Amino acid sequence: MQLHENHSLAAYNTFGIDVKADFFVKVQHLSELKLILSNPLYLRLPKLFLGGGSNILFCSDFKGLVVHLELKGIEDLGDGLIKVQAGENWHHFVLWSLSKGYFGIENLSLIPGNVGAAPMQNIGAYGVELKDVFEHLEAYHIATGEIHNFDCASCRFGYRESVFKNIHKGAYVILSVTFKLRCNANVDTDYGIISEVLNNRGILTPTPKDVSDAVIFIRESKLPDPKEIGNSGSFFKNPVLSLSDFEPIKKNHADVPFYPSGTGQVKVPAAWLIEKAGWKGKRIGNYGVHEKQALVLVNYGGAKGSDIYKLALDIQSSVENQFGVHLNMEVNIIH
Ligand SMILES: Cc1cc2nc3c(=O)[nH]c(=O)nc-3n(C[C@H](O)[C@H](O)[C@H](O)COP(=O)(O)OP(=O)(O)OC[C@H]3O[C@@H](n4cnc5c(N)ncnc54)[C@H](O)[C@@H]3O)c2cc1C
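ok -> structure tokens follow
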């Protein structure tokens, strides 16, 4: 385990923001994590635990210790129960599960990042969320050094939410996640665009691998690749509105898309609101809003995180002024 000082984080966040961490360390075993967290030199420092860096925006240098979690291993416990260490790449795990005949996460193909961060915001895509296949997780409690188990109920998963993003923020390091995958090959193709792609490919009875391939195709055609243009995927969550808040928007914009979301509520695509407010494709020097995907803020190269954050705030207030809707940020902002 090697500790680096004044270490660039440019390669460790998909926005590609070139900030520095006072201290940076890669951790491959629990023993190393315990060692570094109990070292008196770092006890009082702010700490940040990093996976793939695909849901984070650094607004300045990090004045503390960044721990890059590289714990590896996938363990088949039988009966569809699979225990995966935090540092495994999410998409590799999806492909691994397909190759072993375990199903249920094919709709979550190609989501960037690592398994340890997946419960943080209950990752979701194309009608499936992590909570649908979640069994439990093990997390290291930083204050006591104890390992605690969290089942689905205690994670309090919601739409891009969990206890680790709110009441337990910064208190735990997620070490491993155990999934309950299916052994039968039933697929979920309810999401319109998936069935469209499968139909275009002449696939009438799709396998989970077909669904995964379709999802990969859709994502590659819709979303900018962080290796080419720095970004963190959807910057904002889709707002969930009461019918009374939604009514005036619908009255003024008959074309507004919406989806039922619980009793008396609708979900409105944030991308639609941002586009209507005139932000889609807007470029300010070396950063901006992606030309094809209004929900994605981008770093064209050399942008500062604080500039992208300021852009996000401007978008927030412009949507609020125009529609009376507050957009919550999905990306974790590090000031
Ligand atoms: C192109 C693109 C597309 C995306 N599409 C989707 C999508 O469809 N659906 C979706 O839900 N998300 C999507 N995302 C967001 C992102 O991929 C997920 O949120 C992913 O789970 C983040 O994983 P990560 O390892 O990169 O997390 P990081 O960015 O490294 O970390 C995110 C947060 O979790 C904390 N953290 C990370 N690991 C741990 C751990 N083991 N223990 C405790 N805290 C930890 C970090 O401190 C940080 O606060 C997309 C991102 C990109 C760039």
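The chain has three domains: 3-69, 74-180, 230-334.
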